[in-house]
Design brief:
A five-stranded parallel sheet has the order 1-2-3-4-5. The protein is built from seven helices and five strands, in the order αβαβαβαβαβαα. By secondary structure, the chain is α/β, with parallel strands linked by helices. Strand 2, helix 3 and strand 3 form a beta-alpha-beta unit. The model has no long low-confidence stretch (mean pLDDT 95).
């Protein structure tokens, strides 16, 4: 249970000039080590804080698409990015309609990345950011190794191929997207 003293400390931290977003926050039902009701309660509290301090959020959502979308709907004023996106193209379109960003990692380069590629194809590049999710999700041919920012070019290359753009265009647009978000 989070008390008012802890929430006030979070509010204070959020007011610092270097704080540009709240996150990672969200839901992760993959391991089931934290009960879902506790995760949903915490997620709602974090979204309420983001609304209060007017900061975007970085959402981690894994195997919890329905609950994640339901909670996002409860906070229409809060925007951000669904990082390390793992949903279907329909969910990506749903997020874009609500002016959210969708974050893609090295998964985009995997041979079995059909869902990620379909999602990237289905939404405007103006709603896409690329990210590492370091130390995880390194792109091909580094899959299984520690990820790092130097690999972002691999994701940019793949996104350029998907969108019919140059790598330079993808780098410029996704950088501008991140700047606009943060």
């Amino acid at each position: 249970e989070v008390n008012e003293e802890v929430l006030e400390e979070f509010r204070k931290l959020c007011r610092h000039e270097k704080v540009k977003a709240i996150g990672e926050i969200g839901l992760d039902y993959h391991y089931e080590d934290i009960p879902r009701e506790i995760q949903k309660k915490a997620f709602r509290m974090q979204m309420e804080l983001a609304k209060e301090v007017n900061l975007p959020v970085i959402i981690h959502e894994r195997d919890a698409h329905e609950d994640g979308m339901k909670i996002v709907t409860e906070f229409p004023q809060v925007k951000g990015v669904f990082h390390c996106f793992s949903g279907a193209k329909e969910m990506a379109k749903w997020l874009v309609k609500r002016d959210w960003m969708v974050g893609f990692t090295g998964v985009l380069t995997f041979k079995n990345a059909r869902k990620a590629i379909e999602a990237a194809q289905a939404i405007p590049i103006e709603n896409i950011v690329i990210e590492t999710d370091c130390p995880f999700m390194a792109p091909e041919p580094y899959r299984g190794r520690r990820n790092y920012p130097g690999y972002l070019g691999r994701m940019a290359d793949k996104l350029a191929e998907i969108k019919g753009l140059t790598r330079e265009e993808v780098e410029h647009i996704t950088t501008q997207n991140a700047k606009r978000l943060y």
